[in-house]
Amino acid sequence: MFVASDDNGGMHVSLTPELEAFVREKVASGLYNNSSEVVREALRLLRRRDELESAKLELLKQEIERGLESIRRGELHSFDIDEFVKEMRDRR
């Protein structure tokens, strides 16, 4: 078990042995001065990932609404799933 705390000693985090080893490796690499820096960076990255996921979800909701509006206006067209899959593969 590994414990990291903020500079004020206000928060403690328990880590699995695997995560503890990972944190120690990061500190040993010289990229971070201590375990708290590693944990703070991990949390910043987690926050950023959550923000990106939220933004992607919002865009998806907007696209769904756009599609529903098209349906309401009667602007329907046929959809070929095989062609769609081919187009998605070609975009890679």
Q: Would you kindly provide a brief summary of this structure?
A:
The longest helix has 38 residues, at 35-72.
Question: Please, could you describe this protein's structure?
Answer:
This protein is mainly alpha-helical. It has one domain (2-91). 66% of the residues lie in helices and 7% in strands. It has helices at residues 17-28, 35-72, 81-91; strands at residues 2-4, 13-15. It has a two-stranded antiparallel ribbon with strand order 1-2. The mean pLDDT is 88.
Could you outline the blueprint of secondary structure elements for this entry?
Elements: E1 2-4, E2 13-15, H1 17-28, H2 35-72, H3 81-91
Antiparallel strand pairs: 1-2
The coarse silhouette is: elongated
**Number of DSSP-assigned strands:** 2
| Strand residue percentage | 5-15%
Number of domains: 1
Number of helices in the DSSP assignment: 3
Widest β-sheet, arrangement of strands: 1-2
**Global structural class:** mainly alpha
Low-confidence stretches: none
Order of helices and strands: EEHHH
Distance between the termini: 43 Å
Cα-based radius of gyration, to the nearest Å: 23 Å
Mean pLDDT: 88
Helix content: 55-70%
